[in-house]
């Protein structure tokens, strides 16, 4: 619900505003407004910017000095300003082609506003929009957080409260979680540890999600959690068809626009009672975890499709899982630990994944068939099992699944 530069174009006082450059920066979020006027040094006014401001100038100190205007645009970019609005009139009569070109290069939205439009009216309306947006966003965040993370009962009719914020959550609903893959690893690789840079990435991430959901006519409530975006959606068929298309597009756009980042998406089961959204949220997170256990990124996983992982994740006692794993596979683990050249666990896993097909397994592991047969026989002797016996295979495969979860 944050106000973007694009959003202010809808305000009544800005009907006469004209975008002349920096169109690719229209998605930037506006934190506040700032009037940067200084007679002696026109650039002095922007040194106090904190980032996210939309800057107004009448040009009283710049006049038609193109060089100063270019320096101002560069300064706004360095301070992470959201955009520049120039009051066209007695001081600045028009915007030079050089300034427009620079705004395009730096993706700084550059607007002109007729002199008869009073800055005091414009600034008041933008300020009110920002404040109202923050109030509504805080209220909605509190409401959604109470549903997903609260310990107590929901107060009143949650569906009616959702409708108050403009969201239809009647009927069956579910939770979708969109999580940035390896975000901490990405920040270390990029040497990013300041809050402003990290916050900027998260804001861009959320804005992409919001815009694509809106593009697919999905008006859904959204909440942030760490490096993930969570949203509620109705589960009726037409809506979920649009959700599926939107999720795929979100993955594609993020990879293109966010310097190689990717996201994994989990979708929980559907429930009619909003009190069950906490359950759906947990399922969506487990769906992502199941993909991570298999070493997969950039995935869309539904909880209903994670199979045996759902059962394993439901066992909260880690010792129970570890004991089962070592009871079943302990002998070949010990064998692998004693010999650096031994990889019986990997061979067993591949063999079962290839449906106990010797030829396919040998090709995948680059082993001679006779060598593989010898190793399979050794595994069976160590585990005291028969890998042509269905029950033995199930027991061993379960232990291997548990191993991926434990790791």
Automatic annotation (TrEMBL):
Limits of the Purine catabolism PurC-like domain: 7-130
Top-level taxon of the source organism: Bacteria
Domain PucR C-terminal helix-turn-helix, first and last residues per copy: 344-401
Annotated ranges, domain CdaR GGDEF-like: 155-289
Homology family: Belongs to the CdaR family.
Protein name in UniProt: PucR family transcriptional regulator
Organism in which the protein naturally occurs: Clostridium chromiireducens
Lineage start: Bacteria, Bacillati, Bacillota, Clostridia, Eubacteriales
Gene: pucR_2
